[in-house]
């Protein structure tokens, strides 16, 4: 870990609060956390440092919403996500930080465009119910999470398009990310992204994640689905532009 000044610590702690908040509240805030981490740490280093803290938030999210998951949809996604993770691990070795950010930003913009177009269709005819779309979403999410911890917006848009209610969205997302982030750990260790210094930082930063998760549980009960969707899409768009620029 590089030496950090007071302002950088404030940015990182704010990002960790948003990580927890995104796990139990508004998922789109997780992309803001990723962008804040990238402002302070190099992209590749930030992905490995953030992963253990994402797992802390995932455990809290599963404990909070474990009964609301849509398991058939998750089972269809997992093989494709695993394929994307493997592809992402290969790419991490060959691309630089700038290329990685632009690629993920472009993927997010495509996903948003598809979702906005999909909203004009009847719910029973949603693209999210088609197996090829689930496969593409899974591969993109696996690739994005391995390269930049950026699968959140992709899966948020996919689950919104599937018409999941808020609790179903949160429960399905919780199990999805706990499983996939745990699956990523051996790859991240092999690539040198998770380090002893990063684990020390994770131990110091975990309380901020827990505080954000507690706040998210309180806030989510007061948000309707339309507002939830608009906030998620808006934050996803901001994250995509940030990655591209």
From TrEMBL:
Judging by the UniProt lineage, the source's domain of life is Bacteria
Q: What residue intervals traverse the membrane?
A: 77-94, 100-117, 133-151, 157-178, 190-215
Give the keywords, sorted.
Cell membrane, Membrane, Transmembrane, Transmembrane helix, Transport
Compartments reported by the entry: Cell membrane
Q: Which Pfam families match?
A: TauE (PF01925)
Family, according to the entry, reads as follows: Belongs to the 4-toluene sulfonate uptake permease (TSUP) (TC 2.A.102) family.
Predominant cellular place of this UniProt entry's protein = membrane
Q: In its UniProt entry, what is this protein called? A: Probable membrane transporter protein
Q: Which organism is it from?
A: Streptosporangium oxazolinicum
Query: Is Transport among this UniProt entry's keywords?
Result: yes
């Amino acid at each position: 870990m590089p030496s950090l000044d007071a302002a950088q610590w404030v940015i990182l702690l704010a990002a960790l609060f948003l990580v927890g908040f995104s796990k139990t509240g508004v998922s789109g805030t997780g992309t803001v956390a990723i962008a804040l981490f990238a402002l302070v740490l190099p992209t590749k280093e930030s992905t490995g440092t953030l992963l253990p803290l994402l797992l802390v938030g995932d455990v809290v999210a599963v404990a909070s919403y474990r009964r609301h998951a849509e398991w058939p949809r998750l089972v269809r996604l997992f093989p494709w996500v695993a394929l994307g993770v493997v592809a992402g691990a290969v790419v991490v070795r060959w691309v630089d930080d700038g290329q990685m950010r632009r690629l993920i930003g472009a993927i997010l913009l495509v996903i948003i465009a598809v979702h906005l177009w999909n909203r004009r269709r009847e719910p029973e005819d949603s693209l999210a119910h088609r197996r090829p779309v689930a496969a593409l979403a899974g591969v993109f999410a696996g690739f994005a999470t391995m390269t930049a911890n950026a699968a959140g917006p992709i899966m948020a848009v996919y689950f919104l398009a599937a018409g999941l209610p808020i609790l179903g969205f949160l429960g399905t997302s919780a199990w999805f990310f706990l499983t996939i982030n745990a699956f990523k750990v051996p790859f991240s260790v092999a690539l040198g992204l998770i380090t002893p210094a990063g684990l020390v930082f994770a131990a110091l930063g975990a309380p901020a994640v827990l505080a954000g998760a507690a706040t998210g549980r309180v806030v989510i009960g007061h948000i309707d689905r339309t507002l939830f969707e608009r906030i998620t899409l808006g934050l996803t768009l901001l994250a995509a532009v940030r990655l591209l620029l």
